[in-house]
Each structure stands twice: as structure tokens, then as C-alpha cells.
Amino acid sequence: MNAPLKTDDEQVEFLMARLGREARKAAHTLSLASTGTKNHALRAAAAAIRANSEKIRAANALDFAAAKARGVAGSFLDRLALDAGRIEAMARGVEEIAALPDPVGRVLARFERPNGLLIERVSTPLGVIGIIYESRPAVTADAGALCLKAGNAAILRGGSESLRSTEAIHECLVAGLKAAGLPEAAITRVPTADRAAVGEMLAGLDGNIDIIVPRGGKSLVARVQAEARVPVFAHLEGLVHVYIHADADLGKAERIVLNAKLRRTGVCGAAETLLVDRACAATHLAPLVKMLLDAGCAVRGDAETCAVDSRVTPASAEDWTTEYLDAIIAVRVIDDIDHAIEHIELYGSHHTDCIVTENEEAAARFLNEVDSAIVIHNASTQFADGGEFGFGAEIGIATGRMHARGPVGLEQLTSFKYRLYGNGQIRP
How is residue 358 annotated by DSSP? Predict the structure, then answer.
């Protein structure tokens, strides 16, 4: 008698359980791999990305066309798109990760107890990391490479909208693993767009996933944080502020605000709210607002902001809590630095916030008192990026307060263990 056919959910459950077991086995191999072996895999993967640039672009063109036909937002399309420059940057990022010091096996602390017992704290891989992401196919290379260098196996679940691009990039990573003699399961791609696969990952794959990292919209991250049965590195959204202090240089403020908002509107470090100190509003507000409007950015402002340019639309209460990821910014005049910090604490998401000022005392206070993962003085918020921090790349930016905060790079993808060296000591 034939066995009954499995349902779709049962098939996904079976597939994901197998991927989890294979990743756990690969993680053990990776934890023992030498720095040279890991670097060889990464450099070979970077070479494969370059050699397959046209294949990756062709796959991405199909994803892009399908997404555009569905009428998705321009900011979404920007995150999805891969051109020759972005593919080269992806390959270069993998090489930069190879060039970084190996984070595994570092002796973080060493001390001796009065009884002669020597204790060391040593960095170790986390194990198996599940990465769930939407629209950003380049995350495939960044996440896979970072996990590999830190000795972790990765299970990558890209969004359905980038399925072809993700597959093409993943093939290059696998080519690198093969070249170095490492198991292919060290970087696994979930080969189905079925949403049930996400549920299986959040459940932990029978204990085979140690950490989940979501990269995507608010609904995805909220679901992961609500349902995950394993620890999560995540942020809900990037409600990023730029505060123009009373002592801000106008030229510097204009350059910073323009870049922070419009360099790439779809990244989580893009500015979403501009706060202008009342003490400099007479000289700074109108030029900043005009600059943004002339550059094609919609401005939603409070009454004082609306008064400086007829193109400004009135802001609603919702605008102070909206991550636009688009060419839109909310602008508000605030009384002083106290009210700026208060506004950021009330409406912000603890991601990235910036002060523009020539007053070092005010800058120091802002950097000390604003409780965000990244706080910036006189520079664009778009530096909120692991590559710009010298991490080679990042898996994401964490806004929690446990273990990892800010860009999650190599160091944040390790844990530690204690090694004790004795000479026959026993505990009385």
C-alpha cells in the first residue's frame, strides 16, 4: 500500500528539518576550520561573484521586472536592484571580510585564582544563524560571508521577490565553499518561498538554529520578535533624526541633511525627521526646507515649517512615528536641546540619531544622553552601516541592549567559553 502524500506544510517541515540538521553538522566543521581555509573560501566566492556578474544581473532583472509589474514602491525597487557597481561592491565586501582578523579563538581575558587555577575567556562561534530578509539580495553575500568568517553556519531565507537573485549569489558562495573543501551546508539557502519555512525557522528547527536575524519591513521584524523561540538580533524600524542645534554651521547642515535623507532613501539609516532649534530657525529652517523640496523630497512640517514654504504640507501626529523609506521627511522646530532629546526619546526607535553643531559641549551631551545604538556628531546618518564601520559588511543593525547593538559584524557573531587549567586542584 502506498504511503499517503505529504501536505505542503509537511513537505516544508521535512525540508527545513533536514536543512537544520545539515547546518548543525556544518557548523561543527566550521568551528574548527583554520583562518586560511575560511579566507580561501571567501576569496573564491568573491571571484565567483565577479565571474558570474552577468548571470546575477540577468536574474535580478527578472526579479526587478516582476516586482515593478506588481507596482511596488520605488524605495523597495531601489533595495532590490543590482547593477554592475553594486555587484562589484558585493564582491569587494566579501574580500574585505576575508582581510579582517579572525574573531574566533581570541583570548578575551586571562586570570589566575588564589588556588593556582588559570582561567581564560575565549571567543567562539555562535553556531547556526538563521537570516530572514526581504528584497535586499546583497544580504545573501554579506550574511553568508560574515557567518562563515565567524565560524557559523548560515541558513538564508530571502524574500520571494528576490528569489532568482538570491539563488544566483548563493551559487557563488557555494563555489567558494567547494574551493576550500568546506561543506556546502555551511551556507544554506532555503529553496522555497513558502511562508511556512519562516515559521519553521522561528521555531528553531528542532534546536538547530541558535540565533535569528531578520532584515526587512516592520511587519516581518515584528512577526519574528513575536514568534521566535530563539534569540533575535533585530530592530523594528529606523526612525532616524537629524537635530540642527542652535550653533550649527548652515553649510555643513545642508550637506549632512541632504545626504542623510536622499543619498539612498530606502536604507534604515536614512533620516526620517529633521529637528531645527528655534534659536537658529530664522536663518537655517527656510534654506534647509527649500533645499530638500528642490531636490525632490516632500516635506511634512509643523506650523512654523509650513510658514516658510508653500510647498510644505502639514504634518500629522503619525508623521513623527513613520519610517518613510522614501523621499519624504518630517520637519519640526523645537525649543532647545532638551526638547530635541525628549522628542527623540518619545518618537525614536533607538537606531541612529545625529546632532549638527559647532558646540562641543552640546554635542557631548547629545552623544551621552540619546539612547540609540548609533549617535553621530556632524556627519550623515547614512554612515550607519557595518561596511562604513570597517566591519566589511553587516548582517543588520540591532537596537536591543543584549549582546549585539548597532551594526552586527564579525565580533557580534561570536560568543565565548571559559577554559580552566588546573594542576590537580579540588574544591573544598
Answer: S
What residue has cell string 566589511? 392
Residue in 169, 158, 192 with CA at minimum distance from that of residue 57: 169
Summarize pLDDT for 227-286 with one digit per residue, the tens: 999 988 876 678 999 999 999 999 999 999 999 999 999 888 999 999 999 999 999 999
CB atoms within 10 A of CB 213: 25
Which residue in 242, 258, 261 sits closest to 378, CA to CA? 242
Domain ranges of the chain: 8-233+408-420, 240-383
* Nearest CA-CA partner of 298 in 333, 336, 262: 262
Mean of pLDDT values over 122-142: 93
pLDDT beyond 70 at 194 = yes
> CB 376: neighbour CB atoms within 10 A?
25
Mean pLDDT across 70-75: 81
**Is residue 191 within 8 Å of residue 197, measured between CB atoms?**
no
Rounded mean pLDDT of 185-195? 93
**Cross-strand pairs, 123:** 416
- Which among 152, 134, 160, 153 is positioned nearest to 19, based on CA atoms? 153
Q: What is the DSSP letter of 257?
A: H
Share of the chain above pLDDT 90, in %: 77
- Strand stretches in 258-373, DSSP E: 271-277, 298-301, 313-314, 328-334, 352-356
H-state helical runs in 70-124: 74-80, 84-99
pTM: 0.82
240-383 in CATH: which number?
A: 3.40.309.10
Does the pLDDT value for residue 179 go beyond 90? yes
The yes or no reply on domain 8-233+408-420 and CATH 3.40.50.10420 is no
Phi/psi at 326 (nearest 5 deg)?
-155, 175
